[in-house]
Write a structure and sequence with these properties.
Length: 51
């Protein structure tokens, strides 16, 4: 994996922390990885399959 720096609005960070605190994800990084994967599945990889 590669390290990236990401700037997010404070409400996004609070929501991520809430998901981590509620044990949906082990940490912020994993929550962000899942979100990016899901976005790519729909927006990038999904278009290639359907287009």
């Amino acid at each position: 994996m590669k390290l990236i720096t990401l700037h997010l609005p404070e409400p996004y960070i609070r929501a991520l922390d809430s998901l981590v605190n509620e044990k949906y994800y082990p940490n912020r990084a994993e929550a962000i990885r899942v979100a990016v994967r899901d976005l790519l599945s729909i927006e990038a990889w999904g278009r290639k399959r359907n287009g």
